Automatic annotation (TrEMBL):
Domain HTH crp-type: 145-211
Pfam families: cNMP_binding, HTH_Crp_2
Keywords: DNA-binding, Transcription, Transcription regulation
Stated name of the protein: Crp/Fnr family transcriptional regulator
Domain of life assignment: Bacteria
Keyword Lipoprotein recorded: no
Length: 216
């Protein structure tokens, strides 16, 4: 069943006729953690809207991940939406970081809505603004910050996105997501642990409770 509060918050401004069509055409599905949702080169059949959970959107180069952004609750995948104006072929990978619930709307229906309900563009303009900021932050992080700052920012982002502190993640996963080696990440984590920025336990990597978990 579609989460009515989510629908009202996201699409209520479009009116009752649109909401009725959304209920008639949308599909709600649960996605298990670490499940691949779409891969590069695959045809996009649906535009997803995330109700709960977290989805990582990234590309691969020689087996290494380059993260573009994370889809959080109340968000959609901008790269999926943009592909429907060309050949609907995905240019990215998307994987559920944790158990997630999404609303899937067929691409053909979105095409019709853009004509019949042009105000829906406000939803996607908002997504463009957020994703552009995410990509700018990613580029700034990669170009201007040292690796220790990038690792710490990544951990903070993950804790903020998942709500889990400590964060259960391996050194290899961090290395893959930041485009470096596990050995380097292990050395960096030890360094920032000695500086008191994190605590490494059997339960995962923890930011001290008095630490602001937002990226710097």
């Amino acid at each position: 069943m579609i989460n009515n509060q989510f629908i009202l918050n996201k699409f209520g401004f479009l009116g009752e006729n649109f909401l009725n069509e959304l209920h008639a055409n949308a599909v709600v599905t649960d996605i298990k953690a670490k499940t691949e949702i779409i891969r590069e080169g695959q045809k996009n059949k649906y535009v997803p809207f995330l109700i709960k959970g977290s989805i990582k959107v990234f590309t691969l180069n020689d087996g290494r991940e380059l993260i573009y952004y994370y889809i959080k609750p109340n968000d959609s995948c901008l790269m999926t939406f943009s592909s429907i104006f060309t050949d609907c072929t995905s240019r990215v990978y998307a994987v559920a970081e944790e158990e997630s619930e999404v609303i899937l709307v067929p691409v053909s229906v979105i095409h019709e809505w853009l004509i019949r309900f042009p105000e829906i563009n406000r939803v996607f303009y908002h997504e463009y603004d957020k994703r552009f900021s995410d990509v700018m932050n990613m580029v700034n992080d990669a170009v201007f910050h040292r690796l220790d700052k990038r690792v710490l920012n990544y951990i903070r982002q993950q804790i903020s996105a998942t709500g889990n502190n400590p964060l259960k993640i391996t050194h290899r996963e961090i290395a893959s997501n930041l485009g470096t080696s596990r050995e380097v990440v292990s050395r960096v984590l030890k360094k920032i642990e000695n500086e008191g920025e994190i605590i490494q336990t059997k339960e995962g990597i923890k930011i001290p409770v008095n630490e602001n978990v937002r990226p710097v």
